[in-house]
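Follow-up to my earlier ticket, as requested here are the two runs.
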Amino acid sequence: MSHTPQLDETSTDALSGAAREATSRRTIVRGAVWAAPVVAATIAAPLAAASTVPTDPQVDLATTVRRPTEAPDGAVSGGGTFNGNPMYKGYRDLTFVTTYRNNGPDTVPAGSVIGFGLAFAGYWDSLAVQENPASIPLTDLGIDTSATTKLEEDPNVSVNIKWWSQRVEKPLAPGEVFNLTYKAQLRDRPSNPSGVGFPKYGSLSLRSRSRIMVGSSGAVDSNAENNRDVSDRYFAIDNTASSRG
C-alpha cells in the first residue's frame, strides 16, 4: 500500500520561510552589485571636482614685437635710411618676429586672440604666418582697419592701422611662450594717395604692433599694460612717386 507523504501546514510554512530567505539573499547580492558603481561614483566625484579649471582663470598675457628683419632698400635720404632708421619700398615682402606669452598664474583656456598690426593700411596687401615653430593651432579672424594712430611726421594727422587677428585654439599654460614670424607684403605708393599715401612726405615712419587678449577663453587678464606692444624702433616706407611700379 503506497503512502503519499502529506505536507502539513507547518511544513508549508517552513518551505515558504526557506524560499523567502533564499530570495532575500539573492536580492541582497544583486543589490550589492548595482550599488558598487554608486559608491565608486561618490568617491570619484571629489577627484573630478579637484581637476576642474577655475571659473575665472587669472592670467597675465604679454607680447613683444620687432621691426622688419630685412635690410633696407628705400630710395630717399641716403638710399635706404630715414632719420637713421631703415626704409623700405614696395613691392616687397617684409618679415616680423612676434612673441606671445602667458605669465600665469593660471592656464589660459583655448580662445585667446592675438594680433599683428601695421600703420598706413593702404600700403599693406597681405599678411601670412611664415613660421610657427611651436605649431600653435590658429584660426584667422580677418582684418580690421578701424583703429588709428598719429602720423609721426605730423601729429595732427591720423592714419589707419591694419590689424590681422587670430584665435588661439589651445590652452596656454603658465609660463608658456611662443613665437610667430609674419610675412607682410608692402605695396608701392598707392596710385591714388589722397588720404592714404600722404604725397607731401617723401617717407613715412611707423612701428610694428602686436597684441594678445583673453578673447572667448573666459580668463581675466590681471595686467592690461603689457598685452600690447610696438617695436622699440621705427622703420620707414618710401613714399616718393618714383616708388610706384
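Run two:
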Amino acid sequence: MCALQSFKRRLDEIEDPAFCILGVSRILGFVDKDEDVRRLSLREQFAVFNTLDDIDHTICRMIADGESTKDIAATVHLTTKSIENRRQRIMTSLGLRRPVEIVKLLVRLEENRMIDRLR
C-alpha cells in the first residue's frame, strides 16, 4: 500500500466549468506492517537476481521449465533439501512469496530484455 500526498487547487482563471479543480498526488512511500514485505520493483529484482550465483540461476531457470526438485538436485549435484533451502533463500531475497512468482519474474525480465531467453 502506498502513502500519497495530494494537492488540490481551484482554477478560476480558466473560467471554464470543465476545468475547475486540479488535483496532483505523489507517492510519499510504502506503508506496510512489515517493511520487508514490500514488493521490489522490477529493476530492484533484476539487481538482486544478478547477485545470485550460477547455481541459483540454474535453479530458477529449471523451476521456470517446470522441473521437479529431484530433477534440479540431480542436475546441479545437490540434495533435494539443499535445493528447497536455496529456493527459499532466492524467493526471500527477491521479495517473492511462492515458487510460481519465480517463473513470473523470469518471464517479466525476459519480456523487458533484461535476461536472455529462458530456453
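The only thing I checked on run two: The chain has five helices and two strands. Let me know what else you need.
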